[in-house]
Amino acid sequence: AEQDNGHPLPAFANLHIEILDENNQKPYFTRSTYEGFILESSPVGTTISDNRNLTSPLQVVVLDNDVEETKDPQVHLFLNDYTTFFTVTQSGITRYLTLLQPVDREVQQLYTFSMTASDGVQESVPVTVNILVIDANDNSPTFSNISYNVKIYTDMKPGEGVIK
């Protein structure tokens, strides 16, 4: 049944096509190595610093080209060691390493581990993280012996050593 009497009538419609991105890109770190610093007297929850002066936090940025503007809250970081000492906290696309338990420079001066990122399908190339523990004056002075016998002579000058 024709209702246009042999003269087709045109019809128009707007068609919106959305192309979904395939998850075929690995997330990647913006640096291949991260150097961090922490004072040994730092309390739990302290953010690892990116310099010895402890003036700014170590920022870990992971990007994923599968995601528009790389603002992917689904990219997760994994520490491959020392997970009882450090954890990852997030603010937007920037991640920070945070102290989970106190560290002691006299026990361990340097923590070295690798870190990977995953978007649930793809995994990044691992990066190396080195965290140097900075000494704090947290130990009382000690003597190696309980008592000492020394001789002091009458002709000694002020400031002259009497024991080593």
Automatic annotation (TrEMBL):
<feature type="domain" description="Cadherin">
    <location>
        <begin position="30"/>
        <end position="143"/>
    </location>
</feature>
<dbReference type="GO" id="GO:0005509">
    <property type="term" value="F:calcium ion binding"/>
</dbReference>
<protein>
    <recommendedName>
        <fullName>Cadherin domain-containing protein</fullName>
    </recommendedName>
</protein>
<dbReference type="InterPro" id="IPR002126">
    <property type="entry name" value="Cadherin-like_dom"/>
</dbReference>
<dbReference type="GO" id="GO:0007156">
    <property type="term" value="P:homophilic cell adhesion via plasma membrane adhesion molecules"/>
</dbReference>
<keyword id="KW-0472">Membrane</keyword>
<dbReference type="GO" id="GO:0005886">
    <property type="term" value="C:plasma membrane"/>
</dbReference>
<keyword id="KW-0812">Transmembrane</keyword>
<dbReference type="Pfam" id="PF00028">
    <property type="entry name" value="Cadherin"/>
</dbReference>
<keyword id="KW-0130">Cell adhesion</keyword>
<keyword id="KW-1133">Transmembrane helix</keyword>
<keyword id="KW-0677">Repeat</keyword>
<dbReference type="InterPro" id="IPR020894">
    <property type="entry name" value="Cadherin_CS"/>
</dbReference>
<dbReference type="InterPro" id="IPR050971">
    <property type="entry name" value="Cadherin-domain_protein"/>
</dbReference>
<keyword id="KW-0106">Calcium</keyword>
<dbReference type="InterPro" id="IPR015919">
    <property type="entry name" value="Cadherin-like_sf"/>
</dbReference>
<dbReference type="GO" id="GO:0005911">
    <property type="term" value="C:cell-cell junction"/>
</dbReference>
